[in-house]
Amino acid sequence: MAIRPDSKIVKISHLVRDEVEKYVISKNKNDEFGMPSYVDDEDLTGACAIASYVLYRVLRKLNVSAKFALGDNHCWVQCSDWVIDLTATQFGYKEKVLFSKILAILKYINR
Question: What's the pTM value of the predicted model, to 2 decimals?
Answer without folding.
Answer: 0.83
